[in-house]
Each structure stands twice: as structure tokens, then as C-alpha cells.
Design goal:
742 residues, mainly alpha, disordered C terminus, Symplekin/Pta1 N-terminal domain-containing protein
């Protein structure tokens, strides 16, 4: 006996060495398989049969071994597996490995029979193994049942029609699609009917009232391959899964094992349908699968649990002073807030209701805040206050009040003063001429505050001290920074006009209120009037200003910023320049009129600083170099809408004729002013005449204007030298024939 045990150990060791050899090099598989088949046959010991079944399972499922070699080895291994399977001695591990090996062998043998119909022995062995496995499916232990499910899945996959490519028949998967219709061993109707019956038997696990979670999960995992590779039966499988509700598989009493099983079935079914929709988002049953996934996620095992149907613990009211009942109900107590003790001595109402230890918060006088602001603060705070903390605070104040009442009731009342007879009554007084002892004065001073009743609010109104006055330089810097921020806002945001009001609500016309639309034009109006009207009467003429080192006023800073703002995009911001110059001209006229009305006859002549001429010329000098012939409309609009055209302005316009390409721009602009601005007509005609005389390229265009508006101009009349030359030429021509004729 000991010798046989030693031989068994040696044999197992040799077999393991052979296994390690083929795992290292798959080329040795044919030799090793043919060598170990006699050792692991039906007449060998159980340990050897178990090892042999496991080795054959590894061999026919190994991806390192080619399919052609597997087909050759399958015919020799089938006989050994059949003989082992038919033994009366049933070893669970051996049976499990045989079923796994049969699942790997069935597609190989099926393809071998298709190509070699004369090998009927191999198909007979495979059919016998298949029938034996199907008989053991329902009666075998769970490990064998799980392997049987995999075997049935392989049989159904092989015995149904799959996709084929006639150009490469060797690459087609094994299915009924590659079986010839006149095959001698394989009958297509019989095989297809058998596959349909096995599929129904496989799906019957979803219709049973109480299925084992292991079998359900194994079936779901095996069906994923059939859905992906066999479209003809895919919808049938999906409909069977959609009718499966894992929560119905639970039966009372619901134990933790039952809960875990139901959850595992829900998770496996959900994962299967999610993978199907990922591979084929346009699947015809995608919407139903999505709905079923949502139902699985919402389903809960507690719906069938009787314990969940019991009524919950009652919610008993508590007074906030005692947690005994709450502790008996095993409920979680709310967090307790810290209540500071009351100070010794007399207590005021403020101290009674103060539950915080923050000195700054408790000493704040709320009377300083207006009532409307308090309402805006208190209402949202009360809406968000914690109910538990609020109840504890009210209970704390109530307890304080009850304690104070008990203390006052326990204190003895002071005895009433005995009524003295009128005869014995003598008023106590201290003569004013007698000095009171110093000790008595100190006692009176120290006893005075103690006799006073405590004030309800210890602090009075608090007034912030006045800030130190700003110097002129600081005020100027603050003003410049404010103006700079407004301009930055205009440049960065580009606020569009406010179209919130309808046309009927907008007050248009001369009676409209400037700057009331809160758009970009309103801000520009505000800035221009700050620069022009705000410092009116506060400025002095620059000629009389002796302090040359003094910084320019804020109005000039705003003007400078406006000037730069317009030049950054003068074509798009020409309306800003027009608005600004109109404000400057209007302010100059108002200041001149006001100064004239305030000046008496005997006063010296007073001067008013004028800004229109200065900034209009500077603005023209800023953008004239950048104008071209395409800016005619913009430039004419600017000249037509500024309030006054002066001689310096016409000279600036005439300077455009220096550039031959801008002669038409110059002449057309001056012609527009001549036609539509009569007060400036003579100045513009003079400018045209000067252009005609100075720039030769402008004469064709300027002569037309002068011929219409100033035909008597000497500029367009012929020169005297030219007239004499013409006269002489004509005279000589007329006199020549006479001379010759004479």
C-alpha cells in the first residue's frame, strides 16, 4: 500500500513536470497529450483521472495551441473522456473538468466533422458526451451545474447560424452557416431545433419563482456572448432578461445571504444590459433596456421584508427641558449649546437674554440700526435658524427667568419703617458752612453708583470720529482714479444702450433727460459735464495763474482722458467727440454770460477760461493725420455737428489738401459747410480760395466751387500777363496778311 502511494506521488510529480514543459513551449502539446492519455484513462486511479481531466481542460482552452492541432488531438481525447464520464464512480472535481473540456472540444469536433464527414466515431463520442452532460445538468452539484451552463451555451452558439465571409472560409466561426445542406452526419433542422430547445431550457431560470443566484449569474454571464455573436436569437434573450425581476426571487425570511444574492443578480443583469447598449447604442430594444436598468436601480429588497412594514417609533413631543423620554426612545439627542451662567448681583433684561460670551456682540447697540434694515436682516436669519438651537435658547431664557423669580420670592422683604410721631420728627441736615469730613465724602461717592438701578442697555450711541480732511492733492488723486475707473469700464465692457423700455416709455426729443438711460452714452454725458460744468466758477485764467508748478485740475484730467478715449477709435467714437465739444461750447457761452452779468461798470475787465477752441483744434490735430478718402462721411458729420466753425478750424481742414489723395475730402468738406452752415460760409470760401492758390492739385475741384460761390474771385480770373500775350498773338495773326499783302 505504501509502495502504491509512493508510485502515485512519483507519477503526479512526473505529470506536473510534463505540464510545466508544455506551458513553457506549446510545441510539445501533441507529444505530451498522446503520452499521458494511457495514464489518465478510465482504469487509472481517481487522482490521476482528476489530474488528466484538468490537464485536458487546460490543453483545449489554451490560446497558445493552434486550432488545427486541437482538432487533431480532439479525436484521440474524446474516447478517454467518454469512458471516464461513463464510470459509475462519480468524482465531482473530475466531472467538472470533463464538462469544461467538453465545452472547449465541442466547436473543434463540430468543425472537424464538417470537414471530415467520414469520421463518424468522433461525432458519436461527442454526441454521447453531450447527452450524458445534459442528463446530469439538473442533478449534479453546483460546481458541475455551472460548467453545464457554459457547455450548453457553447452548444447553442455552434448549432445556430452565424456570420460568414465566403472570401475567407477558413476565418469563419463555427456555426450552422458553414454546414453543407447535404451533410451525411449533421442534420441542420435537427441541430437547429436542439439548439432552440437548449436555449429555452437555459432561459427557464428567469421564469422560476425561486432560482439560485449562482445559476442566474452564470446564465447571465454566458448569454452575453450569444447576444453579441448570434443576432437571430439576441432579441429573444433580451426579452427574457427584461421579464426577470431579481427582487421577486427573494422569499421570507429575508436573511443577509438572500439580500446579497438579490443584489448580485440585479448588478449582473444591469451590467449585461449596459454593455449591450455600449456596443450597440442604436439597438431596437435600447429604450426598454434603459427603463429596466432604472427599475433595477430603484428596486429595493425591503419591499418584501416584513420588518420594514412595521410602524415606526412614535414622535413624542418634548419640552426641551428633559431628555429622559428621548433617551428611552433611543433617539439621537440634538447638539447642546453652551449657556453661560448669569453674573452675580442685579440682572438687567439685556443680561437675561444674552446667551453669548462674545463681548463685542453683547455690547453692540442695535438701536443704531434703522428699522427697515433690521427687518431685512432678521427675517432671513429667522428663516434659516436651527429649530433645535432656537428651542434650547428659549428654554435657557425661560429657566433663567424662573430661577430669578424663585430667588426674588425667597428674599425677605425689607421691614417697613416705623411711623414716627410728628413731635419727635426732626429733619436731618448739614449746614452748608460746615465742611463735611473727607471720609464721608468718599463713602457717599462709593455708595452712590451701587444704589442706582442697572441700566437695561449699558452703552449709548456710538459716533465715529470725523475723518481727517483731505488735502487738495489727495482729493485730486481720488478724483482722477474714479474717472479712470469709469473710462476703464467704458473701454472694457462697451455697455450697449438700455432697450428695456419700450418706445412709448422713452422720453425723446429736446425735453428728454440726458444720461437717464444708464448706457454708455449716459456715462459719456456724465463725464463731459463733470469736465465742463462741475468746475464752473472755480477755475481761473491760465494767464493769471502764477503758480506754474501746480498740477492741472481734475477737469483738465477728464478732458485729457476723453481726448485719448476718442483718438483710440475716432471713427466709432466721433459722436463722443461731438457731444464733448458741444458741452464745451455751451459751457463757455454760459460762463461768459454769467461773468458779464456779475461785472459792474467800475470793475476791471475779467477774463473767463475758454476751452472749446483749444480742445476742438487739438482733437482735429489728433485725428486729421489718420483720415483718408473713405472717411468723407465721418469727417463731414463731425464738421456739421460741432457748434461753431472758426477760422483755425477751416485752416486745419484746408491743410488736408497737402496730400493729393485727400484733396477731394478737403474740398467736399468745405463745400458742405458753405452750403449748409451760412455763418461759416465766408470763412470756408476764403479757405477754398487759399487752397486753390496754394496747392495746384486742388485747382480742378476748387475752381468749380469758386465759380459758383465766388465767381468774381481774382483767383479764377486770367492774369494780366496772360491777357496781353493772348491779345498780342491774336493781333499779330490778324496783321500778318496785311503786311504780306502790302
Amino acid at each position: 500500500m505504501a509502495q502504491s502511494a509512493g508510485n502515485l506521488v512519483d507519477q503526479i510529480a512526473q505529470l506536473n513536470a510534463a505540464r510545466n514543459l508544455v506551458l513553457g513551449d506549446a510545441a510539445f502539446y501533441p507529444q505530451i497529450v498522446n503520452g499521458v492519455l494511457p495514464i489518465i484513462g478510465a482504469r487509472s486511479r481517481v487522482e490521476l483521472r482528476r489530474w488528466g481531466a484538468e490537464f485536458l481542460t487546460e490543453t483545449f482552452s489554451s490560446p497558445a495551441l493552434a486550432s488545427a492541432q486541437k482538432e487533431q488531438l480532439a479525436a484521440t481525447a474524446l474516447q478517454t473522456l467518454r469512458e471516464t464520464l461513463e464510470l459509475p464512480e462519480k468524482d465531482t472535481m473530475t466531472l467538472r473538468y470533463i464538462v469544461e473540456a467538453a465545452a472547449s472540444l465541442y466547436p473543434l469536433v463540430f468543425r472537424h466533422i464538417i470537414n471530415h464527414p467520414e469520421d463518424s466515431a468522433a461525432w458519436e463520442n461527442m454526441t454521447a458526451i453531450k447527452d450524458d452532460i445534459l442528463r446530469r445538468w439538473d442533478t449534479s452539484p453546483f460546481p458541475v451545474k455551472l460548467c453545464c451552463i457554459k457547455f450548453v451555451q457553447r452548444v447553442v452558439q455552434v448549432q445556430t447560424h452565424g456570420l460568414t465571409d465566403p472570401r475567407r472560409p477558413e476565418q469563419n466561426e463555427t456555426s450552422l452557416a458553414i454546414v453543407p445542406k447535404n451533410h451525411s452526419l449533421l442534420s441542420l433542422p435537427h441541430l437547429e431545433a436542439e439548439a432552440s430547445g437548449l436555449l429555452d431550457r437555459l432561459l427557464s431560470v428567469f421564469q422560476e419563482d425561486a432560482s439560485d443566484p449562482l445559476l442566474v449569474n452564470a446564465t447571465l454571464n454566458s448569454l452575453a456572448i450569444l447576444i453579441r455573436t448570434r443576432q437571430s436569437i439576441g432579441n429573444k434573450i433580451i426579452n427574457a432578461i427584461l421579464s426577470f425581476v431579481p427582487a421577486r426571487q427573494a422569499r421570507t425570511p429575508v436573511t443577509p445571504a438572500v439580500r446579497v444574492g438579490v443584489k448580485s443578480m440585479e448588478r449582473t443583469a444591469r451590467a449585461l444590459m449596459i454593455n449591450i447598449m455600449k456596443r450597440n447604442p442604436s439597438h431596437p430594444l435600447a429604450s426598454k433596456m434603459q427603463q429596466h436598468i432604472e427599475r433595477l436601480m430603484q428596486s429595493r429588497l425591503e419591499t418584501v421584508d416584513d420588518s420594514s412594514k412595521k410602524r415606526g417609533l412614535p414622535t413624542e413631543p418634548t419640552d426641551g427641558l428633559d431628555n429622559t423620554k428621548r433617551a428611552k426612545l433611543d433617539a439621537e439627542s440634538p447638539p447642546l449649546i453652551k449657556i453661560p451662567p448669569l453674573p452675580q448681583g442685579p440682572i438687567s433684561y439685556a443680561q437675561l437674554f444674552t446667551l453669548t460670551e462674545d463681548t463685542g456682540l453683547s455690547s453692540f447697540d442695535v438701536r443704531q440700526l434703522p428699522v427697515d434694515l433690521l427687518v431685512k436682516i432678521v427675517v432671513p436669519v429667522l428663516a434659516r435658524v436651527d429649530q433645535s438651537a432656537m428651542q434650547q435658547s428659549v428654554d435657557a431664557v425661560r429657566m433663567r427667568y424662573h430661577t430669578l423669580q424663585k430667588q426674588q420670592a425667597a428674599q425677605p422683604r425689607p421691614p417697613a419703617a416705623a411711623e414716627e410721631e410728628d413731635d419727635d420728627y426732626e429733619p436731618e441736615y448739614q449746614p452748608m458752612d460746615v465742611a463735611e469730613p473727607p471720609t464721608a465724602q468718599e463713602d457717599a461717592l462709593s455708595a452712590g453708583p451701587a444704589d442706582l438701578q442697572p441700566d437695561l442697555v449699558s452703552l449709548g450711541p456710538f459716533v465715529l470720529p470725523q475723518p481727517p480732511p483731505l488735502t487738495e492733492g489727495e482729493a485730486t488723486e481720488i478724483g482722477r482714479s474714479a474717472v479712470g475707473r469709469v473710462f476703464d469700464m467704458l473701454v472694457s465692457s462697451g455697455v450697449a444702450p438700455n432697450t428695456g423700455k419700450g418706445k412709448s416709455q422713452q422720453n425723446l426729443g429736446f425735453s428728454r433727460l440726458a444720461g437717464s438711460t444708464f448706457d454708455r452714452d449716459a456715462w459719456v454725458t456724465l463725464l463731459t459735464r463733470l469736465a465742463t460744468r462741475a468746475p464752473a466758477g472755480l477755475e481761473v485764467d491760465s494767464k493769471t495763474d502764477q503758480d506754474s508748478s501746480k498740477r492741472p485740475p481734475i477737469s483738465d484730467s477728464i478732458r485729457e482722458t476723453l481726448y485719448r478715449y476718442i483718438l483710440e477709435d475716432f471713427r466709432g467714437r466721433v459722436n463722443v467727440g461731438i457731444m464733448w465739444l458741444n458741452e464745451e461750447w455751451y459751457n463757455d457761452r454760459v460762463q461768459m454770460k454769467f461773468t458779464a452779468s456779475q461785472r459792474a461798470a467800475e470793475d476791471e475787465e475779467s477774463s473767463v477760461p475758454l476751452h472749446y477752441d483749444q480742445w476742438s483744434l487739438r482733437l482735429l490735430d489728433g485725428f486729421l493725420p489718420y483720415l483718408d478718402s473713405r472717411d468723407t462721411k465721418i469727417f463731414i458729420r463731425f464738421l456739421s455737428e460741432i457748434p461753431e466753425v472758426t477760422i483755425p478750424i477751416t485752416k486745419r481742414v484746408a491743410s488736408l489738401a497737402k496730400d493729393p489723395e485727400r484733396v477731394n475730402l478737403c474740398v467736399q468738406s468745405l463745400l458742405y459747410l458753405i452750403m449748409f452752415r451760412p455763418p461759416a460760409r465766408e470763412m470756408c470760401i476764403n479757405a477754398i480760395e487759399d487752397v486753390y492758390q496754394t496747392y495746384e492739385e486742388s485747382r480742378p475741384a476748387a475752381s468749380k466751387v469758386l465759380a459758383r460761390w465766388r465767381p468774381q474771385s481774382a483767383a479764377i480770373q486770367p492774369q494780366p500777363d496772360q491777357q496781353t500775350l493772348v491779345t498780342r498773338t491774336v493781333g499779330s495773326e490778324n496783321s500778318a496778311p496785311l503786311a504780306n499783302g502790302a
